[in-house]
């Protein structure tokens, strides 16, 4: 465990992180991948191998293509990874959501956050996804999802974290839980992580818990791929979501250490989460 917390590579044993499934009572286990893809400027073939090997139900992308023919590039990435485009990209200033055919898309929204002059435009990609058929008298599982990429500038980052927290709390209405994932641009344990973990006033249980802190798995550090020394990317979940494991996947079948270095300038974060049907 100490090696994991230092971010040292830890081989992934087959079956160690739970696979996607729907349990007899309707409870759903989903695999969520968070990945900063640097506008697909690096080794796309390696990136595709990594995403496919992670077998995610949901992918929260940061730095998705935003300029010339960005929709074409987003659609191609989704197609090559056996996923579908949900929302985001240029319309959210970079964050994007992809999902497997297991997810039914009920609602999407792209939000541009207030911009500080001289700094990059930032935004949020939001979706409400339904898992499991409403059969046998069982309720489906509805999950709110937010993909984000916060500012490099500390004061703006804190304002964006508060906006993210408010949006996630609003998305929680009518869902069994909310998952938020992205590039925090701050080391784990910093002020932004603490802000996200606090529930908005009058909304107990709506705080976003750091999945790695709840159930560490794999390796911790996400930056930089060649010599990871810090965790600035994370998956968060509201109180009603059980975190089964979260961290940087290593030893994935068909993926080499060279792939993880070549694909982009961040390492991915993969999480398995159990969500129970709402009332």
TrEMBL record:
Q: Which UniProt keywords apply?
A: Endonuclease, Hydrolase, Nuclease
**Signal peptide, first to last residue:** none
What residue spans carry the region label Disordered? 1-23
Q: From the Swiss-Prot or TrEMBL record, what is one GO molecular function term?
A: endonuclease activity
**Could you confirm whether the keyword Hydrolase appears in this record?**
yes
* A Pfam cross-reference name: Exo_endo_phos
Domain Endonuclease/exonuclease/phosphatase, first and last residues per copy: 33-266
The record's section on InterPro entries has:
Endo/exonu/phosph_ase_sf (IPR036691), Endo/exonuclease/phosphatase (IPR005135)
Q: In its UniProt entry, what is this protein called?
A: Endonuclease/exonuclease/phosphatase family protein
């Amino acid at each position: 465990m100490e090696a994991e917390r230092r971010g040292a590579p830890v081989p992934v044993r087959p079956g160690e992180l739970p696979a996607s499934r729907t349990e007899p009572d309707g409870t759903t286990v989903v695999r969520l991948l968070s990945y900063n893809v640097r506008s697909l400027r690096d080794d796309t073939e390696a990136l595709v191998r990594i995403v496919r090997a992670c077998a995610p139900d949901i992918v929260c992308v940061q730095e998705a293509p935003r300029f010339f023919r960005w929709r074409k590039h987003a659609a191609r990435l989704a197609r090559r990874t056996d996923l579908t485009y949900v929302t985001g990209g240029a319309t959210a200033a970079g964050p994007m959501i992809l999902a497997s055919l297991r997810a039914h898309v009920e609602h999407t929204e792209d939000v541009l956050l207030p911009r500080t002059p001289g700094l990059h435009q930032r935004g949020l990609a939001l979706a409400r996804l339904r898992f499991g058929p409403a059969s046998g008298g069982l309720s489906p599982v509805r999950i709110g999802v937010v993909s984000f990429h916060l500012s490099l500038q500390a004061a703006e980052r804190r304002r964006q974290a508060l906006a993210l927290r408010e949006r996630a709390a609003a998305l929680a209405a009518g869902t069994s839980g909310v998952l938020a994932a992205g590039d925090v641009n701050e080391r784990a344990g910093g002020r932004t992580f603490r802000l996200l973990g606090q529930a908005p006033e009058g909304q107990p249980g709506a705080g976003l818990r750091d999945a790695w802190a709840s159930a560490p798995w794999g390796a911790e550090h996400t930056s930089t791929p060649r010599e990871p020394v810090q965790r600035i990317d994370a998956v968060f979940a509201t109180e009603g979501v059980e975190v089964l494991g979260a961290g940087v996947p290593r030893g994935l079948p068909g993926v080499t250490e060279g792939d993880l270095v070549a694909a982009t300038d961040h390492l991915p974060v993969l999480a398995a989460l159990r969500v129970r049907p709402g009332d």
